[in-house]
Every structure is written in structure tokens, then in C-alpha cells.
Amino acid sequence: MSAFSAATHQLAKGTACIDCRRRKVKCGGEFPSCKRCVRGGYGLDCQYVDERGKTGVQLLEASVTKLETRLAELQILAAKKQQVLEIYVPGRGGLRQNAFDLNPMFRLVPPRHAIRPVTSLPDGWWERVGMPLEIARLLMDYFAPYAFQFGFFMHGPRLCQLMFSQSNFCLLSPNLLNVIYLWGIHLSGDERLLAHEPLFLTRAVTFDLSGQQPRHVVHNIQAEILLVAYFLRLGNVNSAMHRLNSALSLCISYGLHTQASNRPNTALHLPPPRDSIDQGERIDAFWTTFLFYKALDMKNMISLIMDESIDTPFPFEMSAYEGGIVPSNLDGIRTLKNFVNAPGADLSHGALALTAKAATLFERARCYGKNRQSVLYPDEQKFEEDLLFFIDSVPPLSQFIGPYTKCTWITVVTLLQVAVIHLHGSRKYNASNRKCLDAAQMAANLIASFNHLNNVQYIHPIMASLWFTICETLIAGIRESQNMNLTVASNEHLVQSLVTVVHAMETFSCNCYEMKAHLVRLNGMLHRIYIT
Questions:
Q1: Which stretches are annotated as coiled coil (predicted)?
Q2: In this structure, are residues 20 and 37 in contact, taking their beta carbons and an 8 Å threshold?
Q3: Smaller CB count within 10 Å for the chain: N or C?
């Protein structure tokens, strides 16, 4: 006979309701709620433990979880049957001799033909609840070819399936959708679309995280990173840092920086990844956010608390994730701490990992050199040795595959040369000044050797401030030569280096307000030293 069959029967030991057992009072055993709980006004909270040691709520939650798992399986199956739209989203490429880059010429989806001019747009398309399909595809077409230049890290085909499949559309974060539409309009060059950019900007920055689903966390991080790049292009650094802090907060809150330990040590955590691509996106989400944070954060201290807790392994290329290969850290090694202790440009990781490592050294050099006017201390000397070793170990441009990955190369080598400038920039010694000028000239030479520059429409948003720092250093060297009454020929190489960097900035200033603003500042500085 069930313990709950009759209220008058003596209850078996351990079968009282949870609340009565906790209070150690006699329970009547009435079902579904005992009289004592009903009289106390909390009858709805009265629960009994069944024979398996679980409450009714726990059993219900288990059933819901099981149904959600089955639903996800069916949705994945349906997605595989959907035809992937042929929107060209170029991959990050890879590095030669990289065992984990299964397809060096990897493209997320096959390239489409050139975008056809749109003769007419649907009336009131910008006001509709659901974006018309032809407009959504058009905006994605404008955004996709340059996505990786602005911090896009997700898997292209899977994103397209979510955007353009009616059965999967609900699985896509509306925040990310609005940001992609914003970028598509911004890059379109079509005045009919650009007229509505302020409206779509308002929608993009109005994030709704109140009902955030676990599956939307990575989507929302992606949206925040794309907004960081957008605001940097507009020269709005404060808004960019606000979005970056939001992205970093999401990463830390959901433990994306400690994925190897696999411990839900935070109140918020994600369910296990569905597959290697899902896991790879989570790894890339953290390291992309990390890269922007290290390159842009201007605090005068190293973020040691976060750095020393990171055990998420450095990322591979997306092609590796597609092949089922995911970086692991079974020993729980502190990823960044281990790298800082023994820097090295490991080719087995790939372009994103290489850039994240360069950004780490960049941040540390900036903090070490801030307001230091003395010679290098022993720990700073050790850091300088590690920095120079890393610079020497970066692969040459020829080993970077694909035009967009070649842009990664120019970003990495520029970060490292500017790191040298930051390390020595404030030290009032001839040797330090010489090292700064050598680094600035080396950066200019690297730009000159980058013959792909004229074929690239957009470059990483952090490059504007990096190139400005290089120009400042070269101008300071030219001014010092003038003060010493040296001949023009003695600083001709500095002038030529300056011209090279300024030309690169002019190349991208037409579509980047941040670059244009730095050029305006440079023009004033150039005028004062009589360089035309």
C-alpha cells in the first residue's frame, strides 16, 4: 500500500513531506499537500519524495530536460536537411605546417557570385516585424566577406542555417541578428540602406538579456564584439569599451575562461557543447574577447586575476573544429600563465591564438613601460628577452594562407613592434630611444612588405591606434634630429618610414573615422616639424 493512500494510516518512516521532515513535526501525509502545509499558507510548496528519492518537481524537471534534449536532436536533424545558403563567409585561413588546419583554403561556405545591385526595396522593409528574406540575404551578403576583420568567430554555415531556416530561426539571438543587419547596412554603400543606419543602431545597442537562453550566450558575446568593432570604426572608444566590458562579463560569468576545468563554479554555466563546432565557438568567443580587451584596455596594471585563472586552451582554426579536432587541456594547466612563463609562437594553434598571444605581450609591455624612466629591472629584462624571442618566432607572411589571414599577420607583427615601443618609450636613455625608433622603422618596413594592403578594404579596428603610436615615435625621432641640427640625409630613413605608415593610414581612412581622426592629429604634428 502506498504511503500516501490514506491520511489516517501511520506514515512509513521517511515518507513525510519535505517541510514537515525539516521542521521535525508530525505530518498527516495528505496528498498532494498535507494539512499542516495548507494551514501554513504554503500548500503549493508541499512536496513528497518518491521511492527513488526524488521530489515531484525534480521528476518534472528531469522530464522537461529529456524533452528538450530530444527536441534539440530533432532540430539538428532538420537543420542537416536544410540547404545551406551560398553566402560567402571567408574563414580565418590558417598557417602552413599546421597539423590542425585540415583544409588550408578553408571557406565556411562556397562563394556566391558578385552581389547584384538591388533596383527596388520592399516598402517599409525597415519597419516590419520580420526582416524580408531578400533584404536579410542582401545585408548578410554585404557583411559576410569582411566578417572576420571585425571579430566574427562563429561557424558561418550554422549561422546561416539559423538565419534563413524558418524551423531554426527562433534559435538565433535577436541581439546578434540586429547587429548583423547593422553591419550589412553600414558596409553596403547604398544610400537607401544607409538612411536607416541610425534606426538599426538603436535596435542593435538595445540588448535584451532578461530572458537570455543558454544557447544565446555565445551569440550575444558575438554581437557585443561586433559592436566593439563598429564603435571603434566610428571613433567612439567609450562606447566600444562599454560593449567590450559587457562581452567580457558574459565570458567570465559563464566560465568561458575556465572551460578546461569543466567545473560549474559560477551561478551561471552552459550545458555541455553539442559537438566540436559548438565547443570551438565557445573557445573562440573567449579568446576573441580577450584579444580586444588586451589590445584596447588602457589600465596601468596587468589583469593578473583573470590571467592566472584562464585554463581554456588556445584556439584552433574552424576547419579543425569541423573535423572534430578541439584543443584540450586535460592537465588543467593555466593557459596564459604557462605562455607568459615560456612564450613561443606555436604553429599548431593558428591565427587567432597567435594574435591573442601578441596582445598579451602588448599589454604587459605597455604596463611595464608606463611612466618608467629608469633602466630595465631584472623582471623587465626577462620580459624583453621573451618578447624578442616571440617576435623572432612569428612565421613569415608567406606561411599565412588567404588574404584575410594575411591581415592577421600584419596585426600580429604590428602589435609586437608597438609593444617594444611601449616598453622603452618613457625611459630617458639613448639606448631605449634607439630601440623605439628601430621598432617603429621595422613596423614601417613590414607594412611596405605587405603587398596585399591595396587589395584589402578593411583592416582590424585596433590598427588605427597602433599605427598612430608608430607615427608618434618616428616624429619624435625626426624632431630630435632637427634639434641636434643634423643633416636632412641623416633622418631621411625616418621620414620615409613615416610616409609609409601615413600612406597606410590614408588607405583606410576613407571608411574608418577612427583612422581619419588619428590622421588629423598627425597632420598637426607634421606641420610643426615642417614635413609636407
A1: 57-84
A2: yes
A3: C
3-state secondary structure of 87: coil
Alpha helices in 189-275 (DSSP H): 191-194, 197-205, 217-234, 237-253
Q: Which three cell numbers stand for residue 438?
A: 628601430
For the chain, domain boundaries: 18-81, 82-332, 342-532
| Beta-bridge mates of residue 107 | 90
**Full-model pTM:** 0.78
Q: How far apart are CA 470 and CA 478, in angstroms?
A: 13
Determine the Cα–Cα distance for residues 378 and 386; give it in Å rounded to an integer.
Answer: 12
Give the pLDDT score at 183. 97
**Quick one: 25 exposed, middle or buried, by C-beta within 10 A (0-12, 13-18, 19+)?**
exposed
Cα gap 111→232, rounded to integer Å: 28
Say which residue the cell 560593449 belongs to: 243
In whole angstroms, give the CA distance from residue 393 to residue 390: 5
Asked whether 229 and 186 are in contact (CB, 8 A), the reply is: no
Q: Dihedral (C-alpha) 153, 155, 157, 159: value to the nearest 10 degrees?
A: -70
Cell of 434: 634607439
Q: How far apart are CA 425 and CA 420, in angstroms?
A: 8
**364-398 pLDDT tens trace:** 999 888 767 677 778 888 999 999 999 999 988 88
Q: What is the dihedral of CA 226, 232, 238, 244, to 10 degrees?
A: 30
Does CATH place domain 18-81 in 1.50.10? no
- Report angle CA 330, 335, 340 to the nearest 5 degrees: 145
CA geometry: angle 79, 81, 86, nearest 5 deg:
80
**Burial of residue 303, with CB atoms counted within 10 A of its CB: 0-12 exposed, 13-18 middle, 19 or more buried:** middle
Give the closest residue to 150 by CA, choosing from 229, 211, 257.
Answer: 229
Alpha carbons within 13 A on the beta-carbon side of 154: 22
Residue 322 has pLDDT above 80, yes or no: yes
Contacts of 126 (CB under 8 A, 6+ apart): 196, 199, 200
Express each pLDDT in 454-484 by its tens digit: 677 888 989 999 999 999 999 999 888 777 7
